[in-house]
Every structure is written in C-alpha cells, then in structure tokens.
What we know:
The chain is an alpha/beta fold. Helix content is 27%, strand content 25%. The protein has two helices and four strands. The protein has a four-stranded mixed beta sheet, with helices on both faces. β2, α1 (32-42) and β3 (48-53) form a beta-alpha-beta unit.
Amino acid sequence: MPRTCGGWNRPALPAGAAPRTIIRILVVDDAIAAMTRVRDLLLLEPDVHVHGSRDAAEATELIESASFDVILVDIDTWD
Length: 79
C-alpha cells in the first residue's frame, strides 16, 4: 500500500464559470480512517484541494515541493 493518500479535488468548474481562489490543505495523519474523515469534511466546502500524507517524512517532502495554505497534523504522527 502506498504511503501517500494523494490529492483530492472537488469537481471542475462548469464552462464559463468565474475562476475562484483554491484553498490548498495538507492533512498529515497515520490513521487512514481519521484522515479520510477530515478529507470528507473539508471537501464539503467549495474551492478546497486536499492532499494527504501518512508520515512525517512524506509530509516534509510535500511541504518542500508544494505550497499549502493550511496544514493539519496529528501530532503523534510527527515522531
């Protein structure tokens, strides 16, 4: 099983819709069920793009290679 949970997006805007600001969020949690629940709640909001990581090393790589507006971390994952 891959460590990453990848990125989850809301559906694309309809043709002709005005562009909107996207909020990029990283969720770091070694518990898949918790990460999935947080993702599902976040994706209820419009204009959200969520990435997930299951460990600190992978989260660090993501942080260094991408720009996030919000990072949510299960502190026990960051050992």
